[in-house]
Amino acid sequence: MAPHALLIPLPAQGHINPMMQLAWKLVSHGFLITFLNSDSTHNRIHKANTLNSFFDNIRMISAPFEFPPLDSLEGIENRIESLIKGMGPSVIDKVIQEINAREEENKVTCIIADVWMCFGLQAVATLHELPLAAFHTALVSLFAIRYFSAHLVSLGILHSDGIPKEDKKTKYLPCMPALHSGDLPWLWAGEYMFRKGIRMGEEIKDIKWVLFNSFIEIEAPVVETLSKEVGVYPIGPLIPPEFLIDSRTSTKVLPSFRKTDTDCLQWLDKQCAHSVIYISFGSTGILSEKQLEELALGLEATQRPFLWVVRSDLMKGSEANLPVGFLEQVRDRGCIVSWAPQLEVLSHPSIACFVTHCGWNSVQESITMGVPMLCWPYFADQFLNRAYVVDVWKLGLPLNANSQGIIKQGEIVKGVEILQESEQGLEIREEAKKLKIIARDAVKDGGSSWNNFNLFVTAMKRQPNE
Ligand SMILES: O=c1ccn([C@@H]2O[C@H](COP(=O)(O)OP(=O)(O)O[C@H]3O[C@H](CO)[C@@H](O)[C@H](O)[C@H]3O)[C@@H](O)[C@H]2O)c(=O)[nH]1
Known about the structure:
Elements: E1 4-8, H1 13-27, E2 32-38, H2 39-48, H3 54-57, E3 59-63, H4 76-86, H5 89-102, E4 110-114, H6 121-127, E5 132-136, H7 140-147, H8 149-154, H9 190-205, E6 209-212, H10 220-227, E7 232-234, H11 263-269, E8 276-280, H12 289-302, E9 306-309, H13 326-330, E10 334-337, H14 342-346, E11 351-356, H15 360-369, E12 373-375, H16 382-392, E13 396-398, H17 409-421, H18 423-443, H19 448-461
Parallel strand pairs: 1-2, 1-4, 2-3, 4-5, 5-6, 6-7, 8-9, 8-11, 9-10, 11-12, 12-13
Helix pairs in contact: 5-6, 12-17, 17-18
Bound molecules: uridine-5'-diphosphate-glucose.
């Protein structure tokens, strides 16, 4: 009997993508996969991706629960709570019963759930005598700072609502870089996120396998510290192996929530090597009208080619408006798309640098493709990721806002020029080349993530009575 994993993602692009990559990897190791979404998320993915080879190998199912994908932060607390209830333990129990009743020969043999979907799930796994693994889509450091945050309260470093007592750059954990107080990943959503993070740590502590889409080499001290408390298994980067070969011919594109515009790849083919600035704010980052204008004018002023993902909801409150005359001014030097095949873009030889909101997938994809970054974080873990990119790995530069919170056009021009033309930029590009190799080695035979993944797969393939 083939092992059969039930995968339960959080319905947000940045969480579904790595879960799909994990699904793909498990299929290549002989697993059957059932991929569970809420009804609305399931329908949206199918609508945006009519023909995609992903669906040939992975069974996509949905739970009867209307939950639109999390691609805006509006009312986030209530939406997360409603998701945790609507797709909670009793629903998962029913889904497993239905699959097992239908498929005598292919019963579910393990559950892998996003850490946000694990609340109360251990009881269901125990009831069905199934192993449960939690999947964390970002840095181990993000989980660690949440996990140890109650301890930081007891030490008097944080107030009981998660706000730091002192507003200065602090080494909150000895194993992590110093962070500005505003970099703490719960502050954007206040006490709710802080408490939820602590609850998550308590819930996950008893789960034997916690898989991380990261790799040990980039945050070894944190992995070592957290492993004393939790079963930490970094298995990333989960980027499909086809993308890790420089002379790749694969056209595999992950299904996403939005229609992918692949024409930009032909535009990239026409550009010189290492010349193009790629700009994307992931699935949720938004800009004010003024901020969008400054970015556009900054790109114009660089006089360099650029590929910019302008999602229809990139601008706060209305359809994104580019400054009057901007398109006429930049002409063929700029390519604007509403959703890019990002992995293919980042692995294209014409890309010089990535202006990124520092969502973890974007950062890890950039590392794995050896592309230096200009960091423009927006919320959640993105400030923590920036601290690693800039201060620890030295793979990029921060884009600094002025006193009104605006990143001005000159800052963008300066960032690109430093990366492309200065001694400091050369050092950053050298670091990017080194870390690209380390990232790829982690998933090669015998690499750290390869070892963890194989340990996990072997354990999941073992029959319960073995
Ligand atoms: O035009 C685009 C833009 C993005 N992507 C992909 O979409 C994903 C976006 O993920 P990420 O870069 O992590 O950004 P978010 O969508 O913002 O991700 C959420 O989830 C991440 C993982 O938990 C967190 O680190 C982020 O802070 C959170 O916002 C990546 O795989 C990109 O390759 C595309 O394919 N095309």
